[in-house]
Design brief:
Strand order of the largest sheet of chain A: 3-2-1-4-5-6
Order of helices and strands of chain A: EHEHEHEHHEHHHEHHEEHHHHEHHEEEHH
Number of domains of chain A: 2
CATH superfamily of the largest domain in chain A: Crotonobetainyl-coa:carnitine coa-transferase, domain 1
Structural class of chain B: alpha/beta
Helix content of chain A: 25-40%
Number of strands of chain B: 13
Strand content of chain B: 5-15%
Oligomer: heterodimer
Number of helices of chain B: 18
Largest interface: A-B, 149 and 156 residues
Largest sheet of chain A: 6 strands, parallel
Radius of gyration of chain B: 25 Å
Low-confidence stretches of chain B: none
């Protein structure tokens, strides 16, 4: 069997919640050995966001939010605030290619674990930090959680209904974007290290990363000096282009016509071929001038149809379309099921369920869910004994001193 | 030096997803050769706004941004000679990126078997909405339809209105960013083993994997925590609130509430039984929400943001694009960059997605259509006579 793409790379992961763990999830899915390090007194917040009944036993090992984002990783507990914990962490860093953290800007340096300290024990280490605003600048220490990032980046201001205000996205959009970028940054640094022999420090300011996904608006502003108008689901040049009601409760279908051929096909599907010859709609420019009339015609057609029926009719005719799918729809979606998007996992404390598989599919290399997310402290022995060479009694002493643990103190998240 | 010096990428994509993927590779040092159809060029060249000068095909904002650092060669993939040229390019390349409709690369004569046999070290990254296999694979798609299919749209917008896509091309950008990371992993693996690969990246799957707590919790326990759209305000301590000259974004975790209360000059809330812990605040959310709305409406966005920042209250303001140009933070960090272009002039571009201290990105302006055709053909060993033949027959 071929090796997984990143097999042989070892990553010490100090990150928590979403952005950092999403980066290391992508890398672990590709075969990197990711060792997640949690504090006994401040475990990953996602362990507390289980939505399970409050009396659930050992709920910290059963949070799906945590277990999905940390599968394929190993986990150990180290209190970095204690000198012995810090020393053990540095011994581990000496055996790692990469260290990643998403603390607030000043935390790693305050712990005495800045890049220079890590480099002293591992000269070619790659260190990745992911502060919201960056490591310097006047706003460095400002709080910036998930939803703030899209506000700072400019994304919220260009999102919104026509004539309305800015719109919050449906998720903490900046988190997975920064996480995916961080995963790429780490592989870039590995490729560079292979040629030069040198590691490096990488800084991911999450608000800057997300502005990179609206770059044409920055370039455009420097041309026009004007803030863009919010255009809802419309497109800057194509019409029709929108989200239309389908039959049923809160059921919707999107469709887009990229050119006159798409529009002619749409008219055929709706059995309204005369529209393609109507001067208001025949040419793209004209359609763009009369969007409301056109949207009303399309809405009347879609409202009479199930969204999947409309999807099939439209795509068969070559018109780009898709139903608006919620998470329940995705879970049951026949296309995703046929592609094997969900894999059955069996977790020793949390039970069995279907989990989404690694997203990058390599034709010649395996990628799959090889192991469950770690229970808290599950791989303490692997890290302390196998990697760092401690004895059983030494590990027991670490536990007694609170430098490591097998049960987290959840108080900080209550 | 750059991270990807010496790496050559062939880009036959025509959309935002492929364009963004190869822009990132190019800005970090790869030699990206963008293959464009003669005369009309890449689809990215057709979208405005356009600089008030020069030819529109050279001065659109989307093209200028997404095609930085690349070389442009024009040839027609619908001709036998064009396909020969692509094969010549691929034999000297490390990766191929494509975001055209599923089946296009096969129709060009490059199916998976031929690619693996003739170019065994090549990494082929194919970006699409639905993936290269499965019942939806051949369905046509755009940014809007990907956003709908991936699950993010169902959660975005107001509860009493239609679902809303994010501004710009966020589904395509996410796909392109994932393509960037996947391609790099492929390059790493190919470098280690000498064997390339073909990578299938689907926007629908990338987006479905990032639905915060929604899909994972439903998978695990069929818990319907989150159905529908919540608009701009999820609770009194999480949402966008109108202020005097814009919008403030509040995102308070339990530990940030005291700082928020102090910022609102309402420290009394910390002692009040209606608001003193997160359970009581949730039970009295309407009352608290009304107070946050009232407070926010009296605030100027930049003043409130700075006061909040200094006291570590979890508030940002919604930056209009203009605000990015005057942000003290972005200025102090020299985030925005000026790039000259012979036709579009000197314009402002975002900085890199991340800062690599050892191998920084060094973007160059986007190429003119076909600017590097002769240069690249010469590198492939074509004689001027051959180039004339290709030009005479309309291939280049």
């Amino acid at each position: 069997m071929a090796r997984r793409p990143l097999e042989g790379i070892r990553i010490a992961d100090l990150s928590a919640v979403w952005a950092g763990p999403y980066a290391t999830r992508l890398l672990a899915d590709l075969g990197a050995e990711v060792i997640k390090i949690e504090s006994p007194n401040n475990p990953d917040l996602l362990r507390a966001l289980s939505l399970l009944p409050p009396d659930t036993e050992r709920a910290w090992n059963k949070s799906a939010y945590f277990n999905h984002n940390n599968r394929n990783k190993l986990g150990c507990a180290i209190d970095l605030g204690k000198p012995r914990g810090k020393a053990l962490f540095l011994e581990l860093v000496a055996k790692c290619d990469v260290v990643i953290e998403n603390y607030r800007a000043e935390v790693l340096d305050n712990l005495g674990l800045g890049y220079d300290v890590l480099r002293a024990v591992r000269p070619d280490v790659i260190l990745v930090s992911m502060p919201g605003h960056g490591k310097d600048g006047p706003e460095r220490d400002y709080v910036a959680y998930g939803t703030n990032v899209e506000q700072l980046a400019g994304l919220a201001s260009i999102s919104g209904y026509i004539g309305g205000g800015p719109q919050k996205t449906g998720i903490s959009f900046g988190d997975p974007v920064a996480g995916t970028a961080a995963a790429g940054a780490i592989v870039l640094a590995l490729l560079a290290r292979k040629r030069t022999g040198r590691g490096q420090y990488i800084e991911i300011a999450q608000r800057e990363t997300l502005t990179g996904l609206i770059g044409e608006y920055v370039v455009g502003y420097s041309m026009t000096g004007e803030n863009p108008e919010r255009i809802g689901n419309r497109h800057p040049a194509w019409a029709p282009h929108g989200c239309f009601p389908a039959k049923g409760d809160d059921a919707w279908i999107t469709l887009a016509c990229r050119d006159d051929a798409d529009f002619a096909a749409l008219c055929d599907v709706m059995q309204r071929p005369e529209l393609a010859n109507d001067l208001r709609f025949a040419a793209a420019d004209a359609r763009y001038q009369h969007p409301d009339e056109l949207d009303a015609v399309i809405g009347a057609w879609t409202s009479a149809r199930d969204r999947f029926e409309a999807f099939e009719l439209l795509t068969r005719a070559g018109v780009p379309a898709a139903p608006v799918l919620g998470y329940r729809d995705l879970y049951e979606n026949p296309h995703l099921r046929e592609r094997g998007f969900f894999e059955r996992v069996s977790h020793r404390e949390a039970g069995s369920w279907d989990m989404e598989r690694p997203v990058y599919r390599f034709a010649r290399r395996p990628t799959s869910i090889e192991r469950n997310a770690p229970c808290f402290g599950e791989h303490n022995d692997y890290v302390f004994r196998e990697l760092l060479g401690l004895s059983e009694s030494e590990v027991a002493a670490l536990e007694k001193e609170g430098i490591t643990a097998r049960t987290p103190n959840m108080a900080s998240h209550q | 030096m750059s991270a990807l010096d010496g790496t050559r990428i062939i880009d036959v994509s025509t959309g935002v997803a492929g364009g963004f993927c190869t822009k990132l590779l190019a800005d970090f040092g790869a030699d990206v050769i963008k293959v464009e159809p003669p005369r009309v060029g890449d689809g990215l060249r057709s979208l405005g706004p356009f600089a008030d000068r020069g030819s529109p095909a050279e001065t659109g904002a989307l093209h200028l941004y997404l095609n930085t650092s690349k070389r442009s060669i024009t040839f027609d993939l619908n001709t036998a000679s064009g396909r020969l040229l692509l094969a010549r390019l691929l034999s000297g390349a490390d990766a191929l990126v494509d975001d055209r409709p599923v089946g296009t690369l096969e129709n060009d004569g490059f199916d998976g078997e031929r690619l693996a046999g003739e170019f065994p070290k090549l990494v082929v990254t194919q970006l699409s909405a639905f993936g290269q296999t499965g019942p939806y694979a051949s369905a046509p798609w755009t940014n809007l339809t990907s956003f709908a299919a991936g699950g993010q749209m169902a959660a975005t917008g107001d509860p009493d209105r239609e679902p809303l896509k994010n501004g710009g091309f966020q589904a395509d950008y996410q796909l392109g960013l994932n393509g960037f990371t996947a391609t790099l992993a492929g390059l790493w693996a190919a470098g280690e083993s000498g064997t390339g690969d073909a990578i299938d990246v689907a926007a629908m799957e990338c987006m479905a994997s990032t639905l915060e707590i929604m899909l994972n919790t439903y998978c695990y326990a069929q818990i319907d925590y989150w159905s529908g759209r919540k608009g701009n305000v999820l609770s009194a301590v999480l949402g966008l609130f109108p202020c005097e000259d814009g919008y403030l974004g509040v995102h308070a975790m339990p530990r940030n509430f005291p700082a928020l209360a102090r910022l609102m000059d309402a420290e009394w809330m910390l002692e009040d039984e209606r608001f003193r812990d997160s359970a009581s605040r949730l039970a009295n959310d309407d009352e608290l929400r009304a107070m946050v709305y009232a407070w926010a409406s009296q605030q100027e966005k930049k003043v409130a943001y700075q006061r909040a920042g200094e006291t570590r209250a979890p508030i940002a303001y919604v930056h209009e694009v203009a605000d990015l140009f005057t942000s003290p933070q972005l200025q102090a960090r020299n985030y925005l960059q000026q790039i000259d272009h012979p036709l579009a002039g000197t314009l402002t571009y975002p900085g890199p997605l991340f800062r690599m201290t050892g191998t920084p990105s060094a973007p160059r302006r986007a190429p003119l259509l076909g600017e590097h055709t002769e240069e690249v053909l010469a590198e492939l060993g074509l004689q001027p006579r051959d180039v004339d033949v290709l030009r005479g027959t309309g291939v280049i």
